[in-house]
Prior knowledge:
Residues 2-193 form the Thioesterase domain. Belongs to the thioesterase family. It holds the Pfam family Thioesterase. With 202 residues, the protein is α/β, with parallel strands linked by helices. It has helices at 18-29, 44-58, 90-100, 105-108, 111-129, 156-160, 181-184, 186-201; strands spanning 37-42, 65-71, 143-148, 170-175. The protein has 8 helices and 4 strands. Strands 1-2-3-4 form a 4-stranded parallel beta sheet, with helices on both faces.
Amino acid sequence: MQLPGRENRLREKPFEGILPLVETLGSALNPYFDMPFAFFGHSMGALISFELARYLSTSGIEAALIHLFMSGHRAPQLPDPDPPTYHLPEQEFVQELKRLQGTPEEVMQDPELLQILMPLLRADFAICEKYIYTYSRPLGCPITAFGGLRDEEVSRSELAAWQTQTSGMFKQRFFPGDHFFLHKEQGSLLRAIALDLFDSLR
């Protein structure tokens, strides 16, 4: 899914809140919900996927959702242990980007490009940091939570807490690497997803 503010949609204003984003996604993807489907989301994408699944459940579309794959994000009911950073002065915000090591180095070394992407980066941080969890019944589809063995941002217990968000099967899988393990472990990650999807479709 290509969200506003990215690549060929770079000039479009990015979303800064998760609810309007989820409503827009639900409407845009509606034509594809007439067949079994699954969501995979990493970090912020996990939060978006989860809330989109909940949005669909209130719309009567949840039945076709066969699996949720949540990667690199604590369970949504757990509070964020860190103070918000999306509104920090530019120099402090850039330091936070460097600490997280999620922004490509070529971007960090190009001041002009970084300025172009700054609104998007702040908007992404705002989506996560302004998120407020509200309780609803657990989803009926299985959930698999993925994590990096050296991820300092998300602990094993924070990943395990995803189990409370499903009344179905729950699995937890770990891979070598830090918060962005999925880049180097892409092959292993895709095999794990394929196996779980096969089980869900049987």
